[in-house]
Amino acid sequence: MTHSETAAESDKRRLRWELLAVRNRLTADDLRETAGALAGRALGLPELAGARTVAAYVSVGAEPGTRALLDALRARGTRVLLPALLPDGDLDWGAYAGEGSLARVRHGGRMALWEPAGERLGPEAVTGADAVLLPGLAVDPRGTRLGRGGGSYDRVLARLDRAGARPALLVLLYDWEVVARVPAERHDRPVDAVVTPSGVRRLG
To answer: Partner of 169 for a Cys bridge, out of 19, 125, 159, 191, CB 3.0 to 4.6 A?
Structure first.
């Protein structure tokens, strides 16, 4: 690892801490209101309107809420894939069939996640998605996304590259998480657009 990469990782850690501190101050009312606004904005995207399959995730804690969006996509007839965390940090996938199809799973000391309870489709299933909704903590105008640092979605993006898959890459954030600059490393792959409660912004 070069000195510049070490500095970028240090800068990322600091930025993560600052952004998570803001999220942790959000109230239940804040989360409810922003989730509804996010779903409305996202559903208007042509990338989702024309998608047969969308790979998404179930928000937890103070993350921008995705439940309303998942249900609206499913009601629209879109096949929704949700991730299941594997022991090595990679992601398997399963189909979303409504709230009753989710199981709450705790992985070691991490926050409990909501994962698909049904059949597992394998890590490669994401390569068939027309759009991928990525969790994150920030994004900049270049499309550089700041994740939580676990690397699971870096693997997903690398898998898409290897397969030659080019789904729309979308990140769901709060308005203040669109920042001037996210420290970039060589493996970072830019996203196409960010959806916030106040609108959609094209990136890159």
So the answer is: 191
Residue 86: both structure tokens together: 């594997």
Distance from the first to the final alpha carbon of the chain: 26
Distances (CA, A) of 91 to 60, 79, 152, 157: 17, 18, 6, 11
- H/E segment holding residue 55: strand 53-55
The alpha carbon of residue 139 and the mean position of all alpha carbons in its chain are separated, in whole angstroms, by 12
104 touches 113 (CB < 8 A): yes
pLDDT grade for 10, boundaries at 50, 70 and 90: confident
Q: Is residue 142 pLDDT above 70, yes or no? A: yes
DSSP string for 86-120: -TTS-EEEEE--SGGGEEEE--TTSPPEEEE-S--
